[in-house]
Amino acid sequence: MKIMITGSNGLLGQKLVYKLRNKADIKLIATARGGNRLVEQNGYIYEEMDIVDQERVKGVLAKYLPDCIINTAATTNVDACELEPESATLMNVTSVKYLVEALEILQQQNVGYKPHFIHLSTDFIFDGSHGPLTEEEEPNPLSHYARTKLAAENIIRKSELHWAIARTMLVYGIVDNASRSNIVLWAKQNLEQGKTINVVDDQFRTPTLAEDLADGCILIARKKVKGVYNISGKDFMSILELVYRVADHYNLDRSLIKPSKSADIKQPAKRPPKTGFIIEKARKELGYEPHSFEEGIRIMDEQLAGIKK
Fold first, then answer.
1. For the chain, what is the domain count?
2. What pLDDT, on the 0 to 100 scale, is given for residue 34?
3. Would you say the pTM of this structure is higher than 0.70?
4. Domain membership of residue 173 as a residue range
């Protein structure tokens, strides 16, 4: 089975590469903009591919004719998308159009070729008026980022491809060289330094360990399913509770955490107040079973310890 990953330098992309490389039944092609930034560079092919370069996309897909494409490449900085809407649309919508169109053409040209296109989407396509949510919920995006992700979903649904959409949220984990932060690391680092942090108590999520999200994508690929799947963590909590749980895990000072409201934190883009996912469909149809939030933190600890060695 030939699996191609876009955005292989990103958090999810890296986890997918490490889980799939050296698998005897899989030929893995990792792609990203620029050079390969992963520490481990054997057990797979790396191909430079910027997903907004239409000709490059056509060329790379034609070269490998992947059985499955897991599209993790995107601009996910919600505020940056609000401030630079054209760039966000290019990365999150136009690129998907390029990938879909290239695959549709290859499908027409090659008899029996039926690629499986798996795309990553987000809880932010919902307005957050209630939650947790099933796959059938009606989207109502509040930000430009959310609108781009919904537009991409619609392109895929209308395509002639065998497709699946994996919706996720608030992904945390460790990337190679621990170069990027996330909510868990941010809270840990600030509290360890004795800094006071303002944390919203009116946003609710089901935070997702990057390894669990990668496992969910691989299950979708292996089972060749079509449709939308919620792939997130199983513990529903406010962002404030999440940060308290990080503090408790590391025995850090809870009094440094100051509850605040979303309206008081000045951010260019609106966030949905309450989302969270119901993951029963993924459990039943895929056999997906994520770690608890505390288990997720322990997995991150092991990885951080490995990096420090």
1. 1
2. 96
3. yes
4. 2-308
